[in-house]
Amino acid sequence: MSHILDLIKSKKLTYEQIVLSLAQAAENTLDVLHIPEKTAYYFEQNAIDDLFEGNAPYRPRYVLPDYDKFIKEGSKFLQIDPPKDLDELLNSLMILYRHVPSITSFPVYLGNLDKMIDPFIEGYSDEEVKKKLKLFLNYIDRTITDSFCHANLGPEDTRAGRLILEVEKELQNPVPNLTFKYDPDITSDEIAELALNTSLYCANPAICNHKLNKDTYPTDYGIASCYNILPIGGGAYTLSRLVLPKMAELAEDVDHFFQTILPECLQAMGDYMNERIRFLVEESGFFKTSFLVKEGLIQEDRFIGMFGLVGLAECVNILLRDSGKRYGHDKEADDLADKIMHAIDEFVANFPAKYSHITNGRFLLHAQVGMDYDKGITAGVRIPIGDEPESLSDHLRHSARFHKLITTGCSDIFPMENTARNNPSAMLDIVKGAFALGVKYISFYEKDGDLVRITGYLVKRSEMEKYKNNEVVLQNTTHLGAPNYDNNNLKNRKVRGI
Amino acid sequence: MKRAPVRRIISNSLVDGPGNRTAIFLQGCNLKCEYCHNPETQKIYPYKWIDEDSKEIRWMTAEEVFHEVQKDIPFIRGITLSGGECTLYPNFLEELFLLAKEAGLSCLIDSNGTIDFSLYPKLMEVCDGVMLDVKAWDEDRFKALTGGNNKTVKKNLKYLADMDKLEEIRIVCIPEEVDAEAILAGIKETIGDKVANINLRLIKYRNHGVVGKLKDTKSPSDAYMDYLEKIASEKGFRYIKRS
């Protein structure tokens, strides 16, 4: 109870942040999930981690409404007719966003904005559209106070897409997180270069390899939250993660890791995720009551379970500590990492996942990016900060190798020298090469910019400074970003380019 | 195979021509510019000579250099040979470019223009373009600034423009020291309306790394750079970049 009183007395949280924290505290007084002893043991060891999703799931972790359907049909529940012009469109979306739940209670997916907006801007001048976009985007930034909120652009080159990029560069907002879906066969070099150049001013958008991600599901995909590749009209029920370095610490040696620790953790986490999904679908009221479900904006059969993993690098480095071989540098270490990934993949490919129709009853792998409380645990399959290979080319080849098995989101982040701003075509060359080799998702920011990408989400350095000085800040994610920036030495990320 | 003294290979250079490129810096220069930013690359070494200053230099064959370049494929669109003055090693360049072309890479030369390109037709066949420094138009001024002569630079300017191999013209702008206006007028007089299709880069002088007599000279003002850009534009240049 003192935790609850601490929340109420907090001088660092906004009113909204306190309310959300109190809701979570209330949820966590319950004990409704069946958790076997062995699973509880691995949770205690932090070898598996439910990412504080809460003790009694009452909404899916990530929800990706079918906004195209909403634009076409409006919403009976919200008493909104299909929008007929740009003002009506933007206003309708602003209303709907308010009602899209997620694990953060804020919408994590805002739609493929350029394609949604483009049909409505004919007849308006660029300046008129930009003014409306600024109002719309600022509303989002100031009311969705959590940068695990994501909008998509591309892969087509649209006028709306170009205008959104221009406005983004000016606004410098951390919300929404933006991703441009890039496919060299569809996307023009001009808009791809504009997108990349914009990212060197405001760390947005990231670039998604459309070709490699578009067939993940039988339906279209969206990028939500950090960079989760999920089915539109559905989303993710839950995400748990294997904390691979903690698992390695429990192992006596490599054999013990493969024969005991890894299989036990895989089984424990698979069962646990099924238990969460069972409760959400069968016992919580979400899928029975949500107007999003009733109006077909989301469907239960388009939700999946994300089977996360984090810290592949440290896991391998711990298992090979006697030889000193390192992930990202030594063949033996990378081959071991590959073997671990294949073992996890094989388990997931055969483990029956509940209520996961769109994936034929299977979970999908996700490269989880870490939490603010992680120390010495590198995001997903990335190479640790400070230990990056000297050559960007070597780094990207490594990324391509380890992005391969991960289907619901895997990314790398590169801070760039200021000179990159003068050579957008060079940035596109790097992306083209990386994507051709199999890199699935990549993002850049200019090394001295105010906006910095923490793990997948954006935070302003200036806001982190305020938070560290005990000031109240607007975005929840600043609370996560500030310790993460320090704990994981983000300032030491290797800067690329010359 | 000829070996050339390689001072440095930069695997992802964003500043040595269009797109992402591997830049190869060869040791040795036939000029001694007062504002040289890489004075350590000036000294010309006899084959495989070693001294205190040359330890970083690797005498490499074109094949050996290409082996390094290959590590950056497919992230690069080409290579840029720079220096020093890379055209002091024309046979090496030709061999390296042949290998790079086979791999689909574009091949650029960054040059001070004092070696006559027309003497190396085979090299020019495999070279996609030259980024040519025009350091001064007046001969005495050129001599004072670089210790060399600019007759060949002017000849190359015309030759490369006629061959359609002039990727970029570069002018380092230092008021009082560099006759930038005369350079722009001279270029226009030499290659005429071709200026409309050639990149011009106006480089703001910065004294970082300079050890010559201009080491304390300040950068020109933005107003001066604006003024030069306006003049260039009046001469018919359409692709003007500043850095």
Describe the structure.
- The complex is a heterodimer of chains A (498) and B (243).
- Helices cover 44% and strands 14% of the residues of chain A.
- Chain A is built from 20 helices and 15 strands.
- Chain A has helices spanning 2-9, 15-27, 37-44, 67-73, 86-97, 113-117, 126-143, 159-171, 189-202, 210-213, 244-250, 254-283, 286-289, 291-294, 312-319, 331-350, 392-403, 424-437, 461-468, 476-487, and strands at residues 48-49, 62-64, 109-112, 150-153, 177-182, 206-209, 221-224, 228-231, 234-243, 303-310, 364-367, 412-416, 441-446, 451-453, 458-460.
- In chain A, the strands form four sheets. In chain A, strands 3-4-5-6-13-12 form a six-stranded mixed β-sheet. In chain A, strands 1, 2, 9, 10 and 11 form a five-stranded mixed β-sheet that branches.
- In chain A, strand 7 (221-224) and strand 8 (228-231) form a beta hairpin.
- In chain A, helix 9 crosses helix 18, helix 11 runs parallel beside helix 15 and helix 19 (461-468) packs across helix 20.
- Chain A is globular and about 70 Å long.
- The N and C termini of chain B lie far apart (37 Å).
- Chain B has seven helices and nine strands, in the order E-E-E-H-E-H-E-H-E-H-H-E-H-E-H-E.
- The mean pLDDT of chain B is 95.
- In chain B, helix 1 (62-70) runs parallel beside helix 2.
- Chain B is globular.
- The longest helix of chain B is centred in the last third of the chain and has 14 residues, at 222-235.
- Chain B has helices at residues 62-70, 90-102, 121-126, 139-146, 151-163, 180-191, 222-235; strands at residues 3-13, 21-26, 58-61, 78-82, 106-111, 129-133, 166-173, 199-204, 239-242.
- By secondary structure, chain B is of the alpha/beta class.
- Helices cover 31% and strands 23% of the residues of chain B.
- The chains are: A alpha/beta (498), B alpha/beta (243).
